[in-house]
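new request in #modeling-help
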Amino acid sequence: MLKNTDEQFGLISTYIHWISAVMVFSLFALGFWMVDLNYYSEWYREAPYYHKAFGLTLFSLTLIRIIWKLSNKTPKDLGGKKVEHKLAKLAHLALYGLLLLIMFSGYLISTADGRGIELFNLFTVPSMGELFANQEDLAGEVHEIAAYTIMAMVVLHVLAALKHHFIDKDETIKRITKFK
Amino acid sequence: MKKLSLTLVGLLALTASQVASAADYVLDVKGAHAFINFKANHLGYSFLTGRFNKFDGKFSYDAKDVAATKITVNIDATSIDSNHAERDKHLRGGDFLAVEEFPTAKFVSTKVTDKGGDKVEVVGDFTLHGVTNSITIDATKIGEGKDPWGGYRAGFAGTTTIDVSDYDFKAGWVGKIELELLIEGIKQ
């Protein structure tokens, strides 16, 4: 089933979720590693190139994801208190918000001087020019802080999922792990 | 503190009469008639250049008593500009200038020597990345005189070479950097 139902996430939501998860971890690890690369490292140019290209890819995927989420039903909340559902919604919203914030701030770092960002030699995403003073530095701070914040949120996300699975013994994880 | 101070201080200038005879000039940074450029080697194959966009400074100068010259310049290290935002971000970071910790650089002259003709040797303390070293700037007086707007100006050009490892840059592999100072002062 491609679409979500009241009981289950569909294939599209499921695949986008897990591909995004892998990409978020990879981009974080790559970003964490590449900022300390030596200038003479063979990865000095390659790592940021892939970081940016995959970041843009994740951005496209996230836009599709948001459109899909808004045009599709979400499986009904399982047991638990109303306040828990509200907090879960808020946490999910924060994950989306942080993702977009990280992507946009990353874009602002690389485009601060009018240069665009190359997407795998396919095309160049143009710059909007310098939108504010010290753009590359301020955007860099936001990018870094938001990246650490989202990793903290991811830990919370995973702990919450495990709590549902092992303590509440409900269907939460099963709902998002049906791959065919 | 936001200025690089090229103070051409002649030792003899410490006597009152000589200080009094020298005119005070302020670098024309408002009109951007002063520049602090740098030139670094890239990979051993080429050069890249950049500049500091924000700085200020002043000097006192008397053509008849060059040794009494003093100059002070304060540079805003965060204003480094190599025409590439990602590189500038890197240059401001911990590998190079570490501007959060060391936001300013400064030059204060300690000894100025008349080398004959228009040549002047300016020795001074240069503070960069929190480290102060004595450097020597080989300067040339370009000219002085009335400007068309009722003022009086004097201008100098100078170059010096520093090794970033003398200033504890993490990126010591950058090696030697040539600094070029093109300054025009307006008499106060």
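bot summary: Residues 85 and 91 of chain B are 10 Å apart (CA to CA).
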